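Hi R.,

Here's the chain you asked about this morning:
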Amino acid sequence: MKVTQVGICPSEASKKAGRPTLTPELLAASGARYSRNNEGLDSILSKIDPNNLEKSVDSIFRMVDYGHQSIADMVPVAMFIDGVSIWLAYYIWTLCPTAGGQESSTRYIKISAEGLVPPEALGIATADLPEWRDLMSGCFAAYQASQQIWEEVAAENPALMGIPRALLEDSSDMARKKVARMRRNYAFDRARYFLPATAATNVMLIMSARGWVNLCQYLLSHPLSEAVRAGELIRAELELSAPRMIKHARRVESVRQSIAREFEKWVGMANTVSPGDTPTLSVMPPDGISPAEIACDLAGHDNRYAPIGASLQRTSVRFAWPAMGFAEIRDLNRHRTGTKYCPLVPRGFYFALDQIPLARRSELEKLAAIGRRATSVAVKHLTESDPAYIYWVLLGTEFPFEHVTTADKFIYEAELRTGVGAHFRYAKHLRDVLALFYKTFPSTRGLILEGSAEPE
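And here is the predicted structure, written out as tokens:
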């Protein structure tokens, strides 16, 4: 695991224009100064000692501290986090939903067994190591075999990939490269369910010092050693950009207790019967809103970024799936708005059987045995209150997932996740919930830009 803080330097155009350059905390101090006077930026900058930038922070505004969180919001920090488990990357995103950033994608990158995070970094119990290593080896073998199956399926019946015929028949070099990429993605999309959540990934995030401090508090208060190690490395890098925030980037007892209480809920849920696979939708529109007003809110809505009217903005929406693959949860978790809730209690194993032609189903069914085994072992460790149970799950392991937001944000999510280039599985999940939305608001049918998830 490696964490690297990356500074932001001015562009050549900015330097030529003579624009000021400030450290992250100087930027925050200068912005904070506005709350105490109206002297303007030039007057503030005149107080900076170019030979002592750190001292200048406090001379401009002495209250840069976590007690004034809006000030910490003005301290931008970018970090690159290499070599963490797919689970930890997911967990980080749950804590930082509004951060900008990216993660290495299982939809575009082939992952090998060499990329597995070492068990000593995960805290796997010594007694469990032989079984864990055997299971991880079997999962990667199933991932590779599944990928081979899907590549053969695509070659045997190109129409299944949904690639336009004109593109398939185009002999140009650019078209051939595009088709090759689509073929790879088609196989990766369906084989990735056998990947362990312990496969290593890389994450880049840019957010405020306040966001990094909050992340550190949760990571350093977590029972898993991988999370704690990430918190320590992030804290050390944060000191380079925002040294005044470091005293707050620490283990917090109330956070530890909150994590522990939620985990105990999951332990209790592990022994309950799975509630099935039917999605649910609850809406709470404003009083007195007519169907005509709802439809009017989508007038002129010609792309997913176009404005949506106030009635839909004021309509609360809760939509949920009782069992969704971790692969899809990782993607849907990235939506910035509202609150996502995912009790990580295994409910089954999805492996794209519904996508495979009948003639090849038995091959995929045989591979699925390793996924079901992984899910079963994870449940066993969870019932024993072992936090490291999460390191036994795969991307195909299913969990409950819920999102609470407003109708305009739900519509954006549905349009995005069924549109061009959307993954086949979360396109289905969103279509299922859209069908429930249309029952509640029939006037929106045909106005929401529901896509067909065609490849790009």
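One quick note: The chain is about 45% helix and 15% strand.

Cheers,
M.
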